[in-house]
Amino acid sequence: MQIPFFDWTLGDIMLFFQSDWVVAWVLILSGGLLAIWLLENITDPIPLLGSIFDLLVHVGTFLGFFVGILDIFVGYVVWTVQPGATIVAAMLILMGFSLVMRVLSKFPLALVFALALAVFGAATLYGFVQPLTNDAVLMALPGISDVINFLISGKGLLIIGFIIFCVAYVIGGLILKLIELIGKVFASVPVSVLVGLAAIAVGVVVLIAPGLLGLVAWP
Fold first, then answer.
1. Which residues neighbour 207 within 8 Å (Cβ) at sequence distance 6 or greater?
2. Looking at the whole model, is its pTM more than 0.70?
3. Region label for 176, one of left (φ > 0), alpha (ψ between -120 and 50) or beta (otherwise)
4. What are 170-187's pLDDT values in tens digits?
5. Which of 10, 104, 134, 158 has the greatest count of CB atoms below 10 A from its CB?
């Protein structure tokens, strides 16, 4: 069985979101994921309802990571196709960032980034150097066979990976710590609820009177 979505190009996917109705409901539903904490606090005294919203908050946190990526993508679509709708694009990107950081703020970003870069760097080095181990290359470049063999050995890759990790952690750590701090602010309950409610309000305006927010006929 074929699923047409997997055959879409990036242009087809972007075209799908070029609609006031689609953009409005992305704002409203994503805003609901952010604002659900407010409902959780309101329903806490009610046993059954409180438990249901507690579960929705936990599920929504991880589901929100993928929804946040979608929001940022839709914000990019609006930004490029509807340059006059800066409020809509900014709200989508801000909401997406807030949803994504609700998950990422739980992890040490500098450590994850440095580790990913180290693995990528070591794998890239191996892919570049490994073809040089054939006899023809070694004969053309005498005296470096030991160096090449060391670089593609497990010990060599670990050393190279460790060096890349240390450099990336020190240089990228400061920038990522700043992003992580900003992310924790946007991932906090009060800010998330405010952003979510604002997104719902913007989504309703897009449904009723899109021209107020600079949305014109889509090309």
1. 20, 21, 24
2. no
3. alpha
4. 776 677 677 767 767 776
5. 104
